[in-house]
Write a structure and sequence with these properties.
The complex is a heterodimer of chains A (584) and B (249). Chain A has a six-stranded antiparallel beta sheet. Chain A starts with a strand and ends with a helix. In chain A, α3 crosses α10. Chain A is built from 16 helices and 21 strands. Chain A is globular, with a radius of gyration of 23 Å. With 584 residues, chain A is of the alpha+beta class. Chain B folds into two domains: 106 residues, Roll (Ubiquitin-like (UB roll)); 137 residues, Alpha-helical ferredoxin (Fumarate Reductase Iron-sulfur Protein, Chain B, domain 2). Chain B contains nine helices and seven strands. A five-stranded mixed beta sheet of chain B has the order 2-1-5-3-4. Chain B has a two-stranded antiparallel ribbon with strand order 6-7. The termini of chain B are far apart. The chains are: A alpha+beta (584), B alpha+beta (249).
C-alpha cells in the first residue's frame, strides 16, 4: 500500500487498461463498475483497432495514421495527444497479441489488417467483427489474474455518485452506491480515474448499451469538471433501427466490400461511390451519414419511401464473410430476420459516439487535481469526427496514459488525510437519494426520458438549425422543471432501478444542454457538426475547443486554443485523394 | 382492439422472500423483443388486473447478444432476452430468473460464481508485463478460428443453467469454464503454463464431473464448439494425469 491507492470507475477497455498499468506499477486499485467487465459497452465495438502495422507492405506509417486522424477530425483535436496515440498504436496491438487476443491472421500467421472509413490504407486489425469484445475479454482476464493475487478489488454492481475533494480541492475519493442493497459509502483514494463511457442514452435511440447513461461524466461536470466539445456527436451511418435500440452494423461491412445504395429511376444508385470517387463507400462517418440523410430526407429516395438505404454484402463470398464479419451478420440475422449473405441489409444512421467529453490535460487529468478521465468520457482524441477503428485505440491509449499519469501523480502529490469531506458527502448523497424516493408528483420519468431522446435525436444530430436548437434548449429547461414533479412508483430499498434511473435522468438533462447550447453557439460546419445555414468550416472564428462550465442556470461556454503544431489545417474533402488537398 | 403481448413473470422482491407470479399485458410493436416488452412495463407498471405494481427488475446492457447480461428463462428455455423476439414466442410469454444462481430480485441473478471459477481455472495468458516488447507468437489462421470461436463466450450462464451436473450440490465448474481452459491451452504462450489449468480441470469440480448430457452444446446462444472443447480437454487432462503419475513414481 506504500505506493498509493487508485480508484478506477468503469470496467470497459479504458478502465481495465488503466487498472493494469497502475497495478503493474505497484499501486493498489479498487475497480468500480455497474457490473462484470464482460457486460461493458466496449464489447459492442465491432470493426477493429487502427494501427500502422503495415503488414501488407503498403508503406503505411504512423505519421499517415496521425494525418488521417487529424484530417478526419476536421482539425479540432489537439495534435500532441493524437500523435502519441498513433505512434503507440502498433505497440498496443503487439501487447494485446502477447496477451492472447485472437486477431485474424494472414496465410503466414501474421496479424491481418482491413480498411475502414476515411483512410486509403489497410490499417485496422480485427478479431472477426467482435473486436471490442475480444480486446475487452483480454484485459478482463489480465485483471482477473491480479485479482487472483489479491492486488485488485472489484466493486461490481456499484454506481459512482460523486468525486470528493479535500479542503484544497484535491480529489480524495468517491462516494458510490451498491445497486442491490442501495447502500451508499465513501471510498478514499490518492487518485480517481473516470472511465465511464459515453452519454448515448441522452438520445434515446442509439447504438449504445443501456448502461451508457452518461451519468458519471454529468455528475463530474456538475461538480466543476470542464466539459469540452460536447456538441460533437457522431452519428453512425449504418445501424438497424429497432424498438429497444438501434443496432450497429459495423463500418467493417463496407471495409470488406459492402456497398451502399438505393433505387433511382428504377435502377440501383451507388450514391457514395458516385459522389466520393476517391473513398467510395469508405468515406468517414459524418460524410456518409449526411449523404444518407440527403438521399432519404431531401431527395425522398429511401428504400420503399422510408428512411433507410441498402448496405449490400450479397455479392461477396459467404465463407469469407463468416470469417471476417460473422458477429455482425449474426446480429442482422437474429434481429432483422434476414440473411445478409443473400439479401441487402436495410440501414439508417443512428447516434453512436461522443467526441466531446470531460476536459483533460495531456496526462488525462481533469481540472480537478487527482481526478483523471479516459475513454469515451473524455474529449481528447477525435476532434470534430472520429474515424472508425480509432475508438478502441483511444480507449486503450487513454487508459495507458491515465495509468501512467496516475502513477506519476501519486508519487508527488497526495490529498490531505482529513476525511471529514468524505463523511459529509456520504450524508449529502444519502439525503439526495432519500429525496428521490419521496418524489410524489405526477410526471413519469420514463416519459420524460422518451421526450428528451426524441428532441435530441430530431434536432441535435446530423443536421442542425439554430431555431430548432433554441427550441430544444427551451424544451430541455421545461423537462428540467417537470423533473421536479416526478412520481416514483417504487420505494423499495432493494434493487431500486427506478430511483437510480431518476438520478441518472437529472444528469442527462444537464449534459443535454451542454450538447445543445454548444451546437447553437458554433456557427460553422465542422466534422459531425453540420449547419446548412453555416455550411463552411470557419477556422478564423471557430478553430477552438468549446469548454462548458456548469452553473445552476445552464452551461457557461468559453473557448480554448487548439494545438495545431504538427499539421496545418487544410480543406477537408473526400471526393479526391488526400494528396490533392495538400497542394490546394 | 390494438394488438397486445401477454407476459407471465416470476417475481421475487428480495433473496429471502417467496417468489410469485404476476401477469402483464403490454402494447405490441413490430419486431419487439422481450426487453422492449419489459421496458413497456417500466413505462406503465400496472399488472393485468389493473393494479399498480413495481416495475420488473432485470439485468441488461448491450441488447445485441454480445454482453451476456440479460440471460433468463423464457418459455422454459435459458436464453438472452434481447434476442428473444416476441413474434417467435408462444403467449403468454413466461419469464423466470435462472435457477442455478441466487436471485437478487425478480429476473436478476448473481452470477459471480462464473468469474470465481474462471479465476480457479487460471483463464488468462501469463505475460511478463504490460510494457512493449514486440509481437506475440505467430498463430495459424486455423488455430485462430477455433480459438476465436471459444473466446466469444459471454459468461452468460445459459450452459450452466442447462447442465444437469451444475447445481448447488455439485462442485462442477460448468461447460463454459472447460471451453475457456481449452482456449488458453491452445494459445502458444498459454501452452507453456497449461499444467496449472489442467490441474484445476483435473481436480474437484473439474471435467470429471461432466456427465456428457451435451445440453450445453444445444443451449449456447453463441454456438461455442463445446463438444470439441470438452472432448479435447478430457484427453488432455487424462494425459496430464498419466504424466504426473509417471513422474511421481
Amino acid at each position: 500500500m506504500a505506493n498509493g491507492k487508485v480508484i478506477v470507475i468503469g470496467g470497459g477497455l479504458a478502465g481495465l487498461m488503466t487498472t493494469v498499468k497502475a497495478l503493474e506499477a505497484g499501486l493498489e486499485v479498487e475497480l468500480f463498475a455497474y457490473g462484470p467487465s464482460k457486460r461493458s459497452h466496449s464489447a459492442c465495438a465491432q470493426g477493429g483497432l487502427n494501427a500502422a502495422v503495415n503488414t501488407m507492405g503498403e508503406g503505411d506509417t504512423t505519421w499517415e495514421h496521425f494525418d488521417d486522424s487529424i484530417y478526419g477530425g476536421d482539425f479540432l483535436a489537439n495534435q500532441t495527444p493524437v500523435k502519441g496515440m498513433c505512434d503507440t498504436a502498433p505497440d498496443i496491438v503487439y501487447l494485446f497479441d502477447r496477451m492472447g487476443t485472437m486477431f485474424n491472421r494472414s496465410g503466414e500467421g501474421r496479424i491481418q489488417v482491413r480498411r475502414l472509413g476515411g483512410v486509403q490504407y489497410h490499417r485496422t486489425v480485427f478479431s472477426g467483427a467482435t473486436t471490442g469484445q475480444q480486446l475487452l475479454y483480454t484485459l478482463d482476464e489480465q485483471v482477473r489474474r491480479f485479482e487472483d493475487e489479491g492486488m485488485v478489488t472489484r466493486y461490481e454492481g456499484w454506481e459512482f455518485l460523486s468525486a470528493v475533494q479535500d479542503d484544497n480541492g484535491v480529489c480524495m475519493g468517491i462516494t458510490a452506491q451498491e445497486l442491490t442493497s442501495m447502500e451508499i459509502r465513501a471510498f478514499k483514494a490518492d487518485a480517481v480515474v473516470m472511465a465511464t463511457g459515453g452519454p448515448g442514452m441522452m438520445f434515446g435511440e442509439t447504438t449504445n448499451s443501456t448502461l451508457n447513461t452518461g451519468y458519471a461524466a454529468a455528475q463530474a461536470y456538475m461538480q466543476g469538471v470542464k466539459y469540452a466539445n460536447g456538441e460533437f456527436i457522431q452519428i453512425h451511418p449504418t445501424a438497424i433501427p429497432g424498438a429497444d435500440k438501434n443496432r450497429l452494423m459495423s463500418e467493417s461491412a463496407r471495409g470488406e466490400g459492402g456497398r451502399v445504395w438505393t433505387y433511382k429511376d428504377g435502377k440501383p444508385w451507388y450514391f457514395l461511390e458516385e459522389w466520393y470517387p476517391a473513398y467510395g463507400n469508405l468515406v468517414p462517418r459524418d460524410v456518409a451519414s449526411r449523404a444518407i440523410f440527403k438521399v432519404c430526407v431531401d431527395l425522398g429516395l429511401g428504400v420503399d419511401g422510408k428512411n433507410m438505404v441498402y448496405l449490400d454484402l450479397s455479392h461477396k463470398d459467404p465463407k469469407e464473410l463468416d470469417d471476417k464479419l460473422g458477429g455482425i451478420l449474426e446480429i442482422y440475422e437474429k434481429f432483422g430476420g434476414q440473411d445478409p449473405r443473400k439479401v441487402p441489409m436495410k440501414i439508417f444512421p443512428a447516434m453512436h459516439y461522443s467526441m466531446g467529453g470531460l476536459w483533460v490535460d495531456f496526462d488525462q487529468m481533469t481540472n480537478i487535481p487527482g481526478l483523471f478521465a479516459a475513454g469515451e468520457c473524455d474529449y481528447q482524441f477525435h476532434g470534430a469526427n472520429r474515424l472508425g477503428g480509432n475508438g478502441m485505440l483511444s480507449a486503450i491509449y487513454g487508459g495507458l496514459s491515465a495509468g501512467k499519469g496516475v502513477v506519476g501523480y501519486v508519487k508527488n502529490q497526495r490529498p490531505s488525510d482529513k476525511s471529514a469531506a468524505l463523511e459529509q458527502e456520504v450524508l449529502k448523497q444519502k439525503e439526495d437519494f432519500k429525496a428521490i424516493l419521496q418524489m410524489d408528483g405526477s410526471e413519469n420519468p420514463y416519459a420524460i426520458q422518451n421526450e428528451l431522446g426524441d428532441w435530441m435525436t430530431k434536432n441535435v444530430t446530423v443536421v442542425r438549425y439554430n431555431d430548432r436548437l433554441k427550441k430544444t434548449d427551451e424544451k430541455l429547461q421545461e423537462l428540467t422543471e417537470r423533473f421536479e414533479k416526478i412520481k416514483i412508483n417504487n420505494h423499495n430499498l432493494w434493487c431500486n432501478q427506478n430511483a437510480v434511473f431518476i438520478r441518472q435522468l437529472w444528469g442527462r438533462l444537464q449534459l443535454a444542454r451542454v450538447v445543445t447550447l454548444g451546437a447553437l453557439a458554433r456557427d460553422e460546419s465542422r466534422g459531425a457538426h453540420y449547419k446548412p445555414e453555416f455550411i463552411e468550416r470557419d477556422d478564423e472564428n471557430w478553430l477552438k475547443t468549446t469548454i462548458a462550465d456548469y452553473s445552476p442556470n445552464g452551461p457557461k461556454l468559453s473557448y480554448e486554443e487548439v494545438d495545431i503544431q504538427y499539421i496545418k489545417p487544410r480543406v477537408r474533402k473526400y471526393d479526391v485523394d488526400k494528396e490533392e488537398t495538400m497542394h490546394a | 382492439m390494438p394488438k397486445t403481448v401477454q407476459l407471465k413473470i416470476k417475481r421475487q422482491e428480495v433473496p429471502e422472500s417467496q417468489p410469485y407470479w404476476e401477469e402483464f399485458e403490454v402494447p405490441y410493436q413490430k419486431n419487439m423483443n422481450v426487453i422492449s416488452a419489459l421496458m413497456e412495463i417500466q413505462l406503465k407498471p400496472v399488472n393485468v388486473k389493473g393494479q399498480a405494481t413495481t416495475p420488473v427488475v432485470w439485468d441488461c446492457s448491450c441488447l445485441e447478444e454480445v454482453c451476456g447480461a440479460c440471460s433468463m428463462i423464457i418459455n422454459n428455455k435459458a436464453r438472452q432476452a434481447c434476442s428473444a423476439l416476441v413474434d417467435d414466442l408462444e403467449q403468454p410469454i413466461t419469464l423466470e430468473p435462472l435457477t442455478k444462481f441466487p436471485v437478487a430480485c425478480d429476473l436478476m441473478v448473481d452470477r459471480q460464481i462464473i468469474f470465481d471459477y474462471l479465476k480457479r481455472a487460471k483463464a488468462w495468458i501469463d505475460v511478463d508485463g504490460y510494457f512493449f516488447s514486440g509481437p506475440g507468437p505467430k498463430v495459424s489462421e486455423t488455430t485462430r478460428r477455433f480459438a476465436y470461436d471459444l473466446s466469444r463466450c459471454m459468461s452468460c450462464g445459459c450452459c450452466m443453467e442447462a447442465c444437469p451436473n451444475f447445481n448447488e450440490k455439485s462442485a462442477f465448474m460448468g461447460p463454459a469454464i472447460i471451453g475457456q481452459v481449452r482456449l488458453f491451452t491452445l494459445h502458444p504462450t498459454g501452452q507453456t503454463s497449461k499444467d496449472q489449468r489442467l490441474e484445476a480441470l483435473g481436480g474437484k469440480g473439474g471435467i470429471g464431473d461432466c456427465g456428457n448430457s451435451q445440453n450445453c452444446i444445444e443451449i449456447c446462444p453463441k454456438g461455442l464448439p463445446l463438444r470439441r472443447a470438452i472432448g479435447e480437454m478430457n484427453r488432455e487432462v487424462f494425459g496430464y494425469k498419466v504424466k504426473k503419475w509417471l513422474k511421481a513414481d
